[in-house]
Amino acid sequence: MSHLAPDIPELQQVPDATRSLVYLGAFNRAIRSPLTWLMAGAAFAVAVGSGAMLGGALFGTAGALFGAALGAGASVWCVFKIIISWRTRRLVPSAIQRADPAILEDVRRADENVRRMIDAYNRRDAE
After folding, report:
1. Domain range for 57
2. pLDDT, tens digit, for every residue of 25-81?
3. How much is the pTM?
4. For labelling, which of 21, 46, 70, 81 has a CA lying 20 to 30 Å from the CA of 40?
5. In a domain, 11, yes or no
6. Among candidates 114, 93, 87, which has minimal Cα distance to 17?
């Protein structure tokens, strides 16, 4: 199980040692994508507008300010917890195709070597 990449179905065919590389590549592309920022802007506008309108209707000017601030906080949470993670999952298959097979193989081989060294060290300590 990888520490940086979540256990998602899109990464099942990728070896454990290289999941983080592939996932972070997709995450990087998701953050840099104009569609992600367009969706984030729309979420921000809707949340702040709704918060200000509802707060203003219920509690006047102070409610509008509080509602706008609450909407801004909600939109930031929505962007980081929902939109970016959704876009990342959508970009994982293309990140798998774009990944350099030689680098992925080197990481897999290094991971196997480290695991063998840990096993040998644990066996030596058990004796």
Report:
1. 16-99
2. 999 999 999 999 999 999 999 999 999 999 999 999 999 999 999 999 999 999 999
3. 0.76
4. 21
5. no
6. 114
